[in-house]
Amino acid sequence: MADVAAFFPDYFWVYGPACDMHVEAAEGQLQPVPGTRFQFGNMVLSRWPILSTRTLLLPRSRTIGKINPQRGATEAVIAAPGGAIRVYSVHLDHVSADERIRQLQFLNAHINAFVQEGGSLTGGGEFDLPEPPLPEDYVIMGDFNMEPESPEYCALAGAGGGYYGRVARIGTPVDAFAALEAYRPGSYSWMDPEDHGKRMHLDYCFVSCGLEKRLKSTRIDTQSEGSDHFPLWVEIVD
What we know:
single chain
């Protein structure tokens, strides 16, 4: 991740590897350099200082014949100009909707318990350390590997439909695109590299209820190159 961070020399960054393994050399090749690792995790880049961070390990089940690395959510408390805010960078399971639901339920429970439990450090006064901020508002963003209104989407955002539709509730994240009515027919954030006709909306930015009124704009940069997933842009005003 240091190579990525090098492109943003004026930014603060953290990387939380949820999966970390020794790399074995392929047959016929020289052994890898000692300490060479395969890592799989999430990164947060910020224009403002990252005050504290930790990686939450998401629930997972042992699979047979289908790769299933340990997934995580990297939490970063950022000293934004409008006040400290929490950011969660996530990447959910790509195989099973049931596993994604368990991961989202676990993640939402920890996000809602943050103020009561504290973040990466509590009780720092024992060593004359300042207590890190405990902001209530948060942003959750990343590759969720789920489609809008899917069972796992509803497990996080609440069920839609009915007479009142999806009602905003404290403790239930708000989909920034849905809040700004930015979904369009055929909207997508992922495209199959081998079949450009296969497109899905798999990437999201969810915010706490306290940030919903501060959402200004959203867009997906489908002209971006470098990944089969396209960047989501969400603007939040101070």
